[in-house]
Amino acid sequence: EEIIGTITVGGSPVVEVVPAEVEKSILATFSEIASAEVSVTLPDIINVSVTERQPLIAWLKEGQVTMWIDKDGYGFNPRGDSTGLLAVHSVGEPPHPLGWIDTSSITYINPEEADTSVKPIVDPEFVHAVETLSTILPSGTDLLHTPETGLGWNDPNGWQVYFGSDSEKIDRKLTEYETIVNTILAQNLHPVMISMEFLHAP
Questions:
Q1: How far apart are CA 126 and CA 150, in angstroms?
Q2: Cα separation of 117 and 54, whole Å?
Q3: Which pLDDT band, with edges at 50, 70 and 90, does 111 fall under?
Q4: Segment holding 177, helix H or strand E
Q5: What is the pLDDT of residue 87?
Q6: Whole-model pTM?
Q7: CB within 8 A of 202, min separation 6: which ones?
Q8: Which residues contact residue 62 at a Cβ distance below 8 angstroms, ignoring those fewer than 6 apart?
Q9: What angle do CA 165, 166, 167 make, to 5 degrees?
Q10: DSSP string, 14-30
Q11: pLDDT tens digits for 8-32?
């Protein structure tokens, strides 16, 4: 019903409706819609079929879910229960893809030239990193994020660990981290934070 409410044909006859323009309007209005198909059936029926994006990540700020993110990095408003999604607790925003531009900040002399297409707002490498780290996250521990240190968590052993914001060499980082943890425990050390963002200098 919400989508239908956005379709306006201004009292025009159905034969004058341009399905491609209606599809473009739906996709520009609803970022959670991955695709839309519109067709016209005479005498007065407009058929609309949409495919919704499937959320993978629930983005939380101050304990509240502010955005859902799908596997391709598209972000959209949460709708319903976030149970079962990969939760990331952050104090900021997720990293954008390379070359990302906030089109809402651009003023067009001719509004018809505006690019209204929805694009990914989250770096796909970051999404992959969330997926990977979530599989080895200690039980009962939240996956945390800050723009400065990237993804990590409060380790049950008493320190914070961060791995950066992308999935590059994440497997090697995890192997190196396991070695560091074994050394720390063996020597009864008490670090406050361990950064694995840069593999050559943990």
A1: 9
A2: 19
A3: low
A4: helix 170-186
A5: 97
A6: 0.83
A7: 173, 176, 177, 180, 194, 195, 196
A8: none
A9: 135
A10: GGG--HHHHHHHHHHH-
A11: 655 666 677 788 888 888 888 888 9
Secondary structure letter of residue 180 according to DSSP: H
- Which amino acid would we find at residue 129? A
Question: If you average pLDDT over every residue of the chain, what do you get?
Answer: 87
Q: Amino acid identity of 168?
A: E
The two tokens of residue 125 are: 């490498």
Could you tell me the CA-to-CA distances from 178 to 67, 126, 172, 175, 193 in Å, in that order? 32, 22, 10, 5, 14
How far apart CA 1 and CA 105 sit, in angstroms, is 30
Q: What is the pLDDT of residues 72-103, one digit of tens each?
A: 999 999 988 999 999 999 999 999 998 887 77
Q: Which residue has the higher pLDDT, 7 or 78?
A: 78
